[in-house]
Specification:
The chain is of the alpha/beta class. It contains 20 helices and 21 strands. Strand 11, helix 14 and strand 12 form a beta-alpha-beta unit. GO terms for molecular function: 3'-5' DNA helicase activity; ATP binding; DNA binding.
């Protein structure tokens, strides 16, 4: 058995060979990309532009690798057997970028550096896997034998190791999912919260990777359930990138524009380019289906449930169309709404989105953009039930779904009874459904996780158990302060943020319980001199200190959270009050500070504080 120092020395030789090659290759790729763009400008042909974008992406990936000094995170050394019984050896590296690479070694051999998206990288996700399904294109890239008429390769023996690179050299090599993996996850959690999702292939655990690499063709509905911080969003995006057909097209659906903007940048880096994947918020999708309708400028906030069920709404639309066969779609919608008791509105807002998405297939409207084979729905518990009925009417059984969500974050505007009704709306057979509970929270530290789970079990004593990783780099801290005046709140918030910033914490959310109270606090906190980004649902979170509402930060993460107005009026002793506080707590990776403004005789702290602050 080769000792660790020799293994590390050999890996440094390979890493040095990669660096030497990358430094020579990068300027050549820049030249090729410039020439490709020059040609595209000259002939202005779509194929030429696509080629230029591909060449540019190849340059961008290698540049990112070189800057980050992370050309790979794992090694696969294996003995394979082809269908005709021929055996051959494999020794390659795996990186967390999109495109596989080949670089020369000093002894005239070549090293394959494959993407985590490649079928062979299933061995990194599950080193015990005994069979791989490879395309002929895969085999051609690997320069492997192509005998037989089946793509299956048997794994005779496999050794998978994590490789740790620090300061431009390899410092450790260890078995997969061992000490290097845990240290890697811990270091990732120590970083400041980012304003966008990242490619996290190197820090996904066994349980998460088993979900990602499940290629069961019969599976039409995968529900990723579990508490905040378990990686549901990351797993959903990575699963489609890994398991879906490379030619398949799909939609990533989110409840708000802010969450859409959080997801959108990572899709191309996962191989889900614009031509095959599109991220939509519900409001954005409804606008694209009905562009001629008079939409309000402000479509922020959550899309509420429609006050009518689909039968009542459908009957009203049918009735109006019979009575007024020449009416426009706009006139039909408005008249149907009035017949159902809706007050007429000049402009349409988020309260119209669910109904208009359902009306799309009723009116045989064409979908904007691509015809999807798969749909990921993030924060699925926050999507109105009528939207799920609309998806069935639009796509029937032609689409597979991944739903990522947590019923504890359902919100007060969505009170339907969980996953069962969603399954019924999508009309998926039980044999085609997999409902998984992810129990291990990485992002939420132990103290905050424990408080949030006390809220969960207070309203649902039979809830599934979960845990925060014991080796989280920060224990988490929750503090509470009742105050008697606005001026005291202003001073407390200013001092707290100054203190947090001195600790190096920059990603901070100040959360108001509603849009009305948000407008109030925008005015009140303006006098503090704190530089704030006001996030109302249309914008992207750009980092720093943000003032917003609970609904807008669903799916986002921060290092510190300040929760305003933690009183009984905003967070009553109801399940929706507990769920709102749960959502706020679990946005934080380090600190939570709760403020209750008790400036009147009818003001009292939220009863749920007893569950949160021990």
């Amino acid at each position: 058995m080769e000792n660790e120092s020799n293994r590390t020395a050999k890996e440094n030789d390979i890493f040095d060979a990669w660096k030497n090659w990358a430094e020579r290759e990068l300027p050549q790729r820049r030249q090729r990309a410039d020439k490709a763009y020059q040609r595209a400008h000259q002939i202005n042909d779509e194929v030429a532009w696509q080629h230029a974008e591909i060449v540019e992406a190849g340059y961008g990936q290698l540049n990112d690798m070189l800057l980050a000094q992370d050309p790979y995170f794992s090694r696969i050394a294996a003995q394979m057997q082809d269908v005709d019984g021929e055996t051959f050896q494999v020794d390659l590296r795996v990186h967390r970028y999109h495109r596989s690479e080949v670089f020369p070694l000093d002894d005239s051999r070549e090293m394959l550096d494959i993407s985590h998206l490649a079928p062979l990288a299933d061995l990194v996700r599950n080193p015990a896997q005994q069979e791989l399904a490879l395309t002929l294109r895969d085999r051609e890239f690997y320069q492997w034998p192509q005998s037989g008429n089946t793509p299956h390769i048997r794994v005779v023996h496999c050794n998978v190791e994590d490789i740790e690179i620090e300061n431009g050299c390899v410092v450790r090599v260890a078995p997969r999912y061992g000490a290097i993996f845990e240290d890697r996850v811990r270091r990732r959690l120590e970083r400041s919260a980012q304003p966008a999702l990242d490619v996290l292939a190197d820090v996904l655990d066994r349980e998460q990777n088993a979900i990602i690499s499940n290629r069961n063709p019969q599976l039409r509905l995968l529900i990723l359930d579990g508490p905040a911080g378990t990686g549901k969003t990351v797993v959903a995006a990575h699963r489609i990138a890994v398991a879906a057909s490379p030619q398949s097209m799909g939609i990533y659906l989110t409840p708000t524009n802010t969450l859409r903007n959080y997801i959108d940048p990572v899709l191309p880096r996962l191989g889900l380019e614009r031509q095959r994947a599109r991220a939509w918020s519900l409001a954005e999708w409804a606008q694209a289906v009905w562009p001629e309708f008079p939409w309000a400028d402000d479509l922020s906030g959550m899309v509420p449930d429609c006050p009518w069920d689909q039968k009542a709404f459908g009957d009203a639309l049918d009735s109006v169309q019979r009575d007024h066969p020449k009416a426009s779609w706009l006139e039909i919608y408005r008249e149907a709404g009035q017949r159902l008791g809706q007050r007429p509105r000049r402009m349409f807002g988020v309260e119209d989105v669910a109904a208009l998405l359902w009306m799309g297939p009723w009116a045989h409207r064409k979908l904007p953009g691509l015809e999807p084979q798969w749909i990921i729905i993030d924060e699925a518990q926050a999507i109105p039930l009528l939207v799920y009925h609309a998806l069935w009417r639009w796509f029937g059984g032609k689409v597979s779904y991944i739903l990522a969500g947590d019923l504890m974050q359902q919100g007060s505007q969505h009170e339907f009874d969980g996953w069962a009704q969603i399954q019924e709306a999508l009309q998926v057979k039980p044999s085609q459904i997999s409902h998984l509970w992810l129990r291990r929270s990485y992002r939420v530290p132990p103290m905050i996780h424990a408080a949030s789970e006390r809220l969960r079990r207070a309203i649902n004593p039979e809830a599934n158990l979960s845990e925060s990783v014991t080796w989280h780099p920060h224990p988490g801290k929750i503090t509470y302060k009742p105050t008697q005046s606005i001026s005291q709140v202003q001073e407390d918030v200013k001092q707290l943020i100054t203190h947090w910033r001195a600790e190096g914490i920059s990603a901070i959310a100040i959360l108001a319980p509603s849009a009305d109270l948000l407008h109030h606090w925008v005015q009140q906190l303006a006098v503090t001199g704190i530089e704030l980004q006001i996030l109302q649902g249309q914008e992207s979170y750009g980092g720093g200190v943000v003032l917003t509402t609970l609904d807008i930060v669903r799916g986002l993460e921060f290092d510190g959270v300040v929760l305003l107005d933690v009183n009984k009026a905003a967070y009553p002793e109801t399940p929706s009050g507990a769920r709102a506080l749960y959502t706020a707590l679990t946005r934080s990776r380090k600190y939570v500070h709760l403020i209750a403004l008790l400036d009147g005789p009818d003001q009292s702290p939220s009863p749920w504080l007893a569950q949160i602050v021990s």
